[in-house]
Specification:
This protein is α/β, with parallel strands linked by helices. The protein is built from nine helices and 14 strands. The chain has a six-stranded mixed sheet with strand order 8-7-6-9-11-10. Strands 2-1-12-13-14 form a five-stranded parallel sheet. Strands 3-4-5 form a three-stranded antiparallel sheet, covered by helices on one side. Helix 7 links the parallel strand 12 and strand 13. Helix 3 packs across helix 5. It is globular. The mean pLDDT is 95.
Length: 268
């Protein structure tokens, strides 16, 4: 067997490593175990903040570094501690929000608070995804800005995610970054923050370079990560914007798309 050609395997979670029921298939677990046995490291790079990621990492027996919150948080899973954390300037976020609402009308809002136990706040009208992830509803808008945040989520009652993302980027692109991370998930982030910035910080700690990295993802927020890594693999269920910049497209997250690529590389 030839050596595995990459030293780092970076995987998104939702729509990529995780199936719809938030599980990781046995085949994918085995493929990742074979890759790590061959000398590569596996790193999770997710838009989820640490509190919404930790239980998945624990279930996987994941002991290394993970990149969470769209790159805002570099988290050591084995030690259960944050290594780095970047927060959103709340004054800038409020200004950006007012400018977007001036263009498109009122938005439904949610936000992730900073920290290992940072709560996700959800305001009136925000459509939460079904599932076990905890959130705290709020009524008073002042609650949203009462503590440091890693990101702000926005939803529009009529516009599609693509439409809202495009208008928001055009309107406030010089103040903050705007990304679409999944169905119903449009996020306002600190300007310049991306999965690529968080992954590069984590890779430096691991002594690995971009040229040593293969990355897997499914949504437009994975585009910077693909731009940083040597090889970007879009899932079969990926958004068309990510597929357009990917080096290859594999099967979907429900069809062991990650395992198919890793098995091929291991056998090459």
């Amino acid at each position: 067997m030839s050596p595995f050609p990459y030293r780092l395997v970076a995987t998104d979670l939702d729509g990529t490593l995780l199936r719809a029921d938030e599980s990781v298939s046995a085949r994918t677990r085995d493929a990742l175990a074979a890759v790590t046995a061959a000398g590569a490291a596996h790193i999770v790079v997710t838009g989820r903040a640490v509190p919404w990621t930790r239980h998945i990492l624990d279930d996987l027996g994941y002991q290394g570094i993970a990149v969470c919150g769209q790159g805002a948080q570099v988290y050591h899973a084995g030690e259960h501690r944050l290594l780095t954390s970047l927060t959103l300037d709340r004054q800038l976020a409020g200004l950006a929000l007012s400018k977007i609402e001036a263009e498109v009308g009122p938005l439904a809002l949610a936000a992730s608070r900073d920290g290992l136990e940072g709560e996700v706040l959800m305001g009136p009208g925000y459509r939460a995804h079904e599932g076990p992830l905890p959130y705290v509803p709020y009524e008073d808008p002042a609650e949203l800005w009462a503590a440091p945040l890693t990101k702000l989520y926005i939803q529009h009652p009529a516009m599609t995610d693509d439409e809202l993302t495009a208008v928001a980027r055009t309107t406030v692109g010089g103040l903050v970054d705007v990304v679409m991370a999944g169905p119903g998930i449009v996020e306002i982030l600190p300007l310049g923050l991306s999965k690529a910035t968080g992954l590069s910080l984590a890779a430096r700690r691991l002594g690995v370079k971009a040229a040593d990295t293969i990355a897997f993802g499914d949504m437009p927020n994975d585009i910077p990560m693909f731009g940083w890594a040597a090889h970007g693999v879009a899932m079969g269920n990926a958004h068309e914007e990510l597929r357009a910049v990917a080096d290859e497209v594999t099967a979907s997250n429900e069809e062991d798309g990650i395992a198919l690529v890793l098995e091929r590389l291991l056998a090459a």
